[in-house]
From TrEMBL:
Broadest EC class assigned to this enzyme: transferase
Enzyme Commission number(s) from the entry: 2.7.7.13
Native species: Lichenicola cladoniae
Catalyzed chemical reaction(s): alpha-D-mannose 1-phosphate + GTP + H(+) = GDP-alpha-D-mannose + diphosphate
MannoseP isomerase/GMP-like beta-helix domain mapped to chain residues: 320-367
Stretches assigned to the Mannose-6-phosphate isomerase type II C-terminal domain: 371-485
PANTHER family named in the record: MANNOSE-1-PHOSPHATE GUANYLYLTRANSFERASE
Organism classification: Bacteria, Pseudomonadati, Pseudomonadota, Alphaproteobacteria, Acetobacterales
CDD domains reported in the protein's UniProt record: cupin_PMI_typeII_C, GDP-M1P_Guanylyltransferase
Coiled coil ranges: none
Name the record gives this protein: mannose-1-phosphate guanylyltransferase
Amino acid sequence: MLEASQVPAVEQRHGDANSVVVVPVILSGGSGSRLWPVSRASFPKQLWPLISDKTMLQETALRGVGAGFAAPVIVCNQEHRFLIAEQLREAGIEGARIVLEPVGRNSAPALAAAALLVAEDMPNAVLWMMAADSAITKPEALAEAVATAVTAARSGRIVTFGMKPTRPETGYGYIEAGAPLDGLPGVNALEAFIEKPDAATAATLVASGTHLWNSGMYVFTAETLLEEMQLYAPEVLSAVRRAVESRATDLDFIRLQPEAFASAPDISIDYAVAERTSRAAVVAADLGWSDVGSWEALWEISPKDATGNVGIGDVFLEHTTNCYVRSDGIVTAVTGLQDAIVVVTEDAVLVTHRDRAQDVKKVVERLRGAGRHEAVAHNRSYRPWGFYESLIQGDRFQVKRIVVKQGEQLSLQKHFHRAEHWIVVAGVALVTHDGKQTMVRENESIYLPLGCEHRLENPGRILLTLIEVQSGAYLGEDDIIRIEDVYNRQ
């Protein structure tokens, strides 16, 4: 992460007319399907610890906290809100504003929402926009690049970071850097954006010396972005402004007005503003950056053994070279392979050549087309109170393991099509059932007949773990009628 001493050009004195407040804006809306089966829509790559013991979201948020910047603004899918809030708390990040997108509309509407919210109190604040799922391995270089970009942003520029290419990569877009800008050392005009090229074009671009990888990170003031959006993307700004003005506060979250936000065009900040504005600039940097967009990219940035292998989890490798092998569950043995990727989860296995890592997205599309839940969800489903996972499922019955955190409770609910039998295996459960309350301890059980209004709560000091046996004609998760819920879920 950045240390405050590493950003000497950026002063953080609130209230001084000559000072600048830097607000990190983190976009966390992707599903990361090319990192399937670990990354799935219900629990995407930014919520996983893929490059350290912290999740990628935590790594990203801590870059700004370490530099002494303002609390971040997180724009995310509303389905991930409790996971993100919990991960920020675990990382010790306080005061973050979590903005919930009712529907995905790409980066331009998301950034417009963040800029409008920040501009209400600090129109001259500098926004540092980052994706939640990128890796940066050279923090000192990042500190210098951010300080340079902040200076340019304060002069009215919309600044992006161009990564100095290390290879002719076809998975990234490119930026053509123009002439240096007067009075802004280390900042160049931005001549053009170039879409992801084929291999031959990528080689030519890298050899030119004037082309950089497009990192997707931007720095600008809230005022500058809103001015340029009014000029080049007024329909985006108008829709998002209505969504922000009619927002609601829900617990720790900011809910944008759904109909207004949904009316915004689905467009990236590149297409909406950056490719059209006359204020675009680029800071070239070598940050050890990767968008971690594939298993091949993750192999590239991960520490390797003497034979070029990355082994994570319960794995055994024999006569194997330059492979990425990960197991989040059962023991995994690999022998006689080279340049391969093997990823094992509880309910899926991926095996591919590293050169075909981009094709994983096609596999996910096929799984979606076949209606397979493995395409979008893990066997373990996380909730604000804990998690549950299916152990056995058959005709008219299902067995689940449910884990409830200390002091948390499920909604008061009932089911039309199933009965439930709860057996406590660890901790103590306080069960509300049809207006009565019963304490259920280890090795005790309780039966909840069809139609019973019930709630599960953990009043103890350790995790509550129980086995739930469901029986009935229909066992889908949509057979839940919530009567009361402390988390305001529908």
